[in-house]
């Protein structure tokens, strides 16, 4: 029994690196000075190389051929909803301003409150409908241009903004179409310029050097 116990201890010791009676035993003090060529020191708490714990890549899995950024179709829902809420908030504030201005000669009473509330509701719905319609047209044109060209860049943004302005003002004739297209071109051009300002500034600095 004693021999079997020694042999079992020796086997377990060999398995876990502890020296048995016939094998060389190394203490932690002996191994502390051994250099690890090409490796960083092991963690004193975990017997793993810390290099394997560093994540250099993204931790999510993308389908084959998918982009890391959202496309125009995915951003369309956020754009339309955000424009609707922004229009409703701006319209409500504008309606409150107009309501207070039109009823400034009235005393604070129920008819005045009802009139102000009606103005707030009317203006909020009007601006929400306007900005929501513009966002819907812009998103639709952006998706169409992206699918047609097969690329995603600022040219799609400018083209979608120009066509949105032209279609939105098409009821005003040729002059209205021209004004709407020019307004859309100006706004989207300014946005594209702001979006690439840092890149353009870096390119100018590199060329000056």
From TrEMBL:
Q: GO terms for biological process?
A: protein import into mitochondrial matrix
Show the stretches that span the lipid bilayer: 75-96, 126-145, 176-194
Q: Which GO terms describe its cellular component?
A: TIM23 mitochondrial import inner membrane translocase complex
Q: How does it sit in the membrane?
A: Multi-pass membrane protein
Any idea where this protein resides? Mitochondrion inner membrane
Keywords, ordered alphabetically: Membrane, Mitochondrion, Mitochondrion inner membrane, Protein transport, Translocation, Transmembrane, Transmembrane helix, Transport
| MF annotations from Gene Ontology | protein transmembrane transporter activity
Assigned protein family: Belongs to the Tim17/Tim22/Tim23 family.
Query: According to its UniProt entry, what is the function of this protein?
Result: Essential component of the TIM23 complex, a complex that mediates the translocation of transit peptide-containing proteins across the mitochondrial inner membrane.
Q: Which PANTHER family match?
A: MITOCHONDRIAL IMPORT INNER MEMBRANE TRANSLOCASE SUBUNIT TIM23, TIM23
Quaternary structure, per UniProt, is: Component of the TIM23 complex, at least composed of TIM23, TIM17, TIM50 and TIM21.
Put simply, this protein is called Mitochondrial import inner membrane translocase subunit TIM23
